[in-house]
Amino acid sequence: MKEKWEGALKIVREHSTDSAIFFTCDKESTLLLELRMGLDIPVLFVDTGLYQDEIYQYLKTAEEHWKFKTVILKNEKVIGESSASGKEDCYVLLRDKIILPYLLEKGIKTLIEPLKGDERLKKDRVIRVFPLSGFSDLDVWRVIKDRGIPYCELYNKGFRDVGCEPCSASEKQEDVDREEVQRRLKALGYL
Predict the structure, then answer these.
(1) DSSP, res 44
(2) CA neighbor of 102 nearest in space, from 124, 123, 81, 72
(3) Lowest-pLDDT choice from 35-44, 127-136, 147-156, 178-187
(4) Do 179 and 185 contact (CB within 8 A), yes or no?
(5) What 3-state class would DSSP assign to 160?
(6) Alpha carbons 160 and 28: distance in angstroms, whole number
(7) Angle between the 27-35 and 53-66 helix axes, to the nearest 10 degrees?
(8) Domain at 2-158: CATH architecture
(9) d(Cα 87, Cα 58) in Å, to the nearest integer?
(10) What is the pLDDT of residues 79-123, one digit of tens each?
């Protein structure tokens, strides 16, 4: 675990000039804040207006804990488009149509993202860096626990992932139809 953390730290430090962090208040982007300690890297948050109160509360907690001021980005037209798309397309739409124009306007050359994902962002315009790409969920939680890092309260309420309410609500652990899962496992020969 120590090697993974040191590797992620090295990546963030190597890309600390002309860069920004895409913060979503999830556990992975929370680790990015821990990795940026002592560095002057802007933290970007896209406010879709569809977050639970706990997200906004955690955003304030994070600002106080790591002593930074979030750059809050918002574009009502794009946010309206994104709500009609699926989770992955929504993320890409928000990143490409809200964050990318901001990065280009400010001359920011590198976007530090929590997880390696969609590669549709034009690579000739902004470098994308994923310092946590080798981390599992268990690794992330281990670092949070070991370092005493504050995290969003929604995780304590049964959410596996946090973000906008439509996506987070669909991933709440209690929402899983256990009978359907057991039926599928039996059909596959596991039960």
Answers:
(1) E
(2) 72
(3) 178-187
(4) no
(5) coil
(6) 12
(7) 10
(8) 3-Layer(aba) Sandwich (3.40)
(9) 21
(10) 555 444 455 566 666 667 788 889 999 999 999 988 755 444 555
- CA quadruple 175, 176, 178, 179: dihedral sign: positive
Instruction: Summarize the confidence of residues 128-143 as an average pLDDT.
Output: 90
Which of these, 140, 120, 125, 105, lies nearest to 28 by C-alpha position?
A: 140
Where do the structural domains in the chain lie, given as residue ranges? 2-158
171: left (phi over 0), alpha (psi -120 to 50) or beta: alpha
**What's the token pair of residue 34?**
């821990």
pLDDT of residue 170: 47
Which token pair is 144? 């949070």
Q: Which residue shows structure tokens 């599992």? A: 136
* DSSP code, position 171: T
- The CA distance from 25 to 90, in Å, is 16
Residue type, 30: T
What average pLDDT does this structure show over 20-37?
93
Q: How far apart are CA 185 and CA 191, in angstroms?
A: 6
